[in-house]
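Entry
Fold in token form

___
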Amino acid sequence: MGKRAWLCLLLGAFFGLTTSAQVSAAPAKKKPTLVKAVKKVAPLQKSAPRRSGHLAANEEESSSLPKLASTAVAVIDQSTGEVLYEKNPQAVLPIASITKLMTAMVVLDAQLDLQEKLRISEEDLDTLKGTHSRLAIGTELSREEMLLLALMASENRAAAALSRYYPGGRPAFVAAMNAKAKLLGMTDTHFADPTGLTPENVSSARDLVRLVEAANHYPLIREFSTAEEHRVMVRGRPVVFRNTNALVKHEGWRIDVQKTGYISEAGKCLVMQAWLASKPVIIVLLDSWGKLTRIADANRIKRWVETRLASGPTAMRS
């Protein structure tokens, strides 16, 4: 091998060793570290089904929303008109004795003599459902007392008598009920009788908000619908009638207007204007099942609304 070749080999070996030493001496390039220690993360919970309405919203707060058994619900801040909660608000359903709020408004709008005596007759009997009444045929009470019993105790014969003594009789009375509903903008509502015993009396939760708001402008409806009890004479004996809504005598509730209702087609129904966290709130609950379901739903709503209103105005928005 010539001198030239040896020189090339020596130079190549020298530079190869130097490069190799430099590579091995250079520190390895670190990868960017995002998390040094791996934290255990709780498994994601399945999102609850999105509820109908404005506050069905934030999934991360879905567990704090009230779990209500009623089929249709509306909860409205009456002072602002803000929808606090809705569930099937436009579903058109039978409303049972919620009807009697409209019955009372039609009676009072007519400005009839409240002291006039009305007599229960066979025409006032319930031939549709066969419900019992302690107002025996022949019982005479003032129009005012009939109105009180219809609102407080949901007395069907009292409501029937009120409509029968209306100028033009019961047909004219029912026509006035529907005209009043139209005037209030209750487009989902239809009335066929003054008691609510027929499932043909239908409305939606949104429409019933309008009904409750209108009824709240009548001092007698506020007074009579929230009275706890009243005694009348029937066949010479005192008979005590009590409110169908146990919440009116509950010290934790301040209720200005209320009405309960039930027929099998409607389920248990309840509408109220009540004060929650010092604000007027309208609550509509339709088609609840179980003896105490509507009361339980009302109490859930009360706790939920008061908790969020206490946290500030934005807590109620979706």
Residues 2-63, 314-318 have pLDDT under 50 and may be disordered. The longest helix spans residues 3-25. DSSP finds eight helices and eleven strands in the chain.
